[in-house]
Amino acid sequence: MRAAEAIALISRGWFVTGRLEDGVDHVEWVRPGLRALVDTEGRRRRRYLATARREVRTHGFTTTLDTEFESVLAACAQPRGKDATWITPAVADLYRELHSVGVAHSVEIRLSENGVVGGALILALGGWMSIESLFHTVPDAGHAAMLGAEDFRLSHGILVTDLQLISPFLRQMGAMEVPLSAYLSLLDLCINPGGNAVD
């Protein structure tokens, strides 16, 4: 799949996932009835950000953008525990395509003695972004990656941050769920202002 096809699907509210089965790399597109978004004005979100900033301040992390895309992509693609990775080789190739056209981005969290110790994989179109995946290899680097994604949101004028599917961790950091119809309206405002609505 080329970047233009993927962007068209993303613009209609779909997100990508992959699975390996019997040696076959399946790329699948999902559009659930509820979508997890960052509640940027919620008290829980503000509390999470304040706590995270306090926790990471003492570690000496530095944050960069798009300097180690391949490293972040490879780290995010590693299996977590017993769960198989959804970033299969075919999905990773798609992210590379999207990176080549300026849609996929990486946030890198560094420690001078350890190199890249955390990061985030992000997609961005207009005023919309999606935090696709996070990783960390040392304590609090995951929080630092989330703060890096927040800095990306602020510096790029992002209006909607998509988290795809809700989880207890995402609720703790200030996520909320909205119906698909509401999500599509927000998506349309972000990436297609003044144009035809997505469906």
Automatic annotation (TrEMBL):
<keyword id="KW-0808">Transferase</keyword>
<dbReference type="GO" id="GO:0005737">
    <property type="term" value="C:cytoplasm"/>
</dbReference>
<dbReference type="InterPro" id="IPR016181">
    <property type="entry name" value="Acyl_CoA_acyltransferase"/>
</dbReference>
<dbReference type="InterPro" id="IPR004616">
    <property type="entry name" value="Leu/Phe-tRNA_Trfase"/>
</dbReference>
<dbReference type="Pfam" id="PF03588">
    <property type="entry name" value="Leu_Phe_trans"/>
</dbReference>
<dbReference type="GO" id="GO:0030163">
    <property type="term" value="P:protein catabolic process"/>
</dbReference>
<protein>
    <submittedName>
        <fullName>Uncharacterized protein</fullName>
    </submittedName>
</protein>
<keyword id="KW-0012">Acyltransferase</keyword>
<dbReference type="InterPro" id="IPR042203">
    <property type="entry name" value="Leu/Phe-tRNA_Trfase_C"/>
</dbReference>
<dbReference type="GO" id="GO:0008914">
    <property type="term" value="F:leucyl-tRNA--protein transferase activity"/>
</dbReference>
<keyword id="KW-0963">Cytoplasm</keyword>
